[in-house]
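Render VWFA domain-containing protein in 3D.
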Amino acid sequence: MGISKGSSKALCFVVDTTRSMGDDIAAVRTVTSKIIDSKVGTEDEPSLYILVPFNDPDFGPLMKTTDAEVFKGYINSLRAYEGGDTPEMSLSGLQLALTGSPPNSEIFLFTDAPAKDEYLKNTVIALIEQSKTVVNFMITNILGFHRCREANENQQQQQNQRMVRSDSQLYRDLAQASGGQAIQVSKTQLLQATSIITESTSSSLVTLLQASRNLGRAEMYTFIVDETLTNLIIYITGSSVDYTLVNPSGELHNSTFTGPSIITGELVGNLRTLRLPAQVGLWELRLTSTNPYTLRVIGQSPIDFIFRFIKQSEGPLEGFDLVENRPTAGVNTSLQVILLEGDISTVTEVTLVESSGSGQVNGLVEAQGGGQYLVHFDKIPSVEFVVLVRGQSTNSTTSRASSMTFQRQSTTSLRASSVSVTLSDTESVLEPGTPLLIPFSVTTTGKGGNFVIKATNDQGFDLTYPSSLTLESGGSANGTARINAPLASQAGTGVTLTIEAEAPGGADANYDVLRLTVLPKVTDFSPPVCQLLSLQSNCSDSCNQSTWELSVQVTDGGNGTAIDSISLREGDGILNFNMTTANVALVSYNASCCSPNVQLVVVDRVGNVEVCSYSVAPNVSPTFSPTIKPSSSTTASSSIAVQPSLLCLSVMILGLMLGCKMH
């Protein structure tokens, strides 16, 4: 069903490059080098490196590479440029990173400014939900204030203070939705905080527990540690959060503990880190605070899971279809769970747990074999939730096999919706300069009214769409979006279009995502043409002491898109070619007479392919130098023989050897 989780994740940085970010960029350089140097050659080496800069009014480009040294070059090229006051295009940069990163990635965004493009919040959340990507915000200094030295009037300062509170909450909301953290530190603390948080960038990283509370209060959490877990870490992000930790033996460790302890703690800015021993059993964590906070318990283990919501297929064949956006609220639903390391583990419980509360919904688990499970729920929580999986795993490391309980949790917060949005995906190619019309439909299982429509794309291409659609209760309506790529758009550019429908009152919304590719209209359907210029050899009975060579002119025609590549399919000789123009190349080839055949593969820029074959008899010495004719009179594929007299002689000799009578 296309569900996968990469063996190693992308390392993705989104960096504010305005003038006050000089120290932050230096910290990013240092941390990047440390991560790369410590992970290159190990199983945790990132499979992909991504960098997206942003400021105001610009963001991008997205820089992507699989080469660690090239990525270091990208990072080292970052400079803090002069810019205006806050805010910045932080969500535009994040949107570009989300659409350019593989699923299940982890993104680190560095800024000291509020978001100018807050209107992208719901789009970013939609992309987070679909890609299941974790986003961590590294925020320095008092958000949004240090660049406003010119704002001396009290009214302007009060407005900035409101902006600070609003944007702090914006970043916290996005971090919570993704299962990441919004870490606020001073600029001198950034390097230390980033080093701590990037320690968890591992291919075997798993989440045992995470929670978020916008209204702090005393609360107790529990989590199970199994024998496969190592490098256990608790992250608590928030101000003035007191904790008490109880291990399976009943030993306590709290915020004011000063004696010797096997638990190590560290506090940097609003991030508290607790490193635990891998003691198997049930742990308790009691948190007390009057402020908002987030909690995350992680470790490393081969046991993990991936999941997707599914629905009964509506076609003629029985089965299930993937739910690409939010599941439908108010009805029963199904979940497909795939357990990694499923050959030694089994799932016994799957629960939908409220992200910001204690409510939960238990599912009915049906094993399907091969580590796959179908889980049925009679309802979905009405608020944001995560997926919690518990099961049993066989411990084969001891002389006697034993069973242990494990616990894993998803990172991304999900939500149900009574609204559904469906984009037509019949056309996925966007031709530069030609508008593409994309029909879409909006359906509701709830109340009708005026539904607000919002559409965005990550490349900033011209986009029009209806601002609203009117739906009756339980009804649907259709709309059309129109997107236009500039004529100068580069072929192969990916474009991610997101369309969101918001129910009356704004309390409910859903989305759909369509991925397009920019490709110019193809008018070149003819393959390149090969024309032999010369073929010479001194081949003899001792083929290893003689050679042959040829010269060929390759053209793609006057209306062609240009030659893209020339390579050998057959032949052990040396191939050289020189592009005289984009559409014309002179090719030379020489080889031992022991390798008498050669095939040239010529491809133009739209993928038309021509295979040109040539050969020389190993025991004759032809010399063929035809008069060059216009390329229009040359056939597209050439299978070149030697002069007719030599050919007849060769055939006669071969016939006599075979005892055949020649006529």
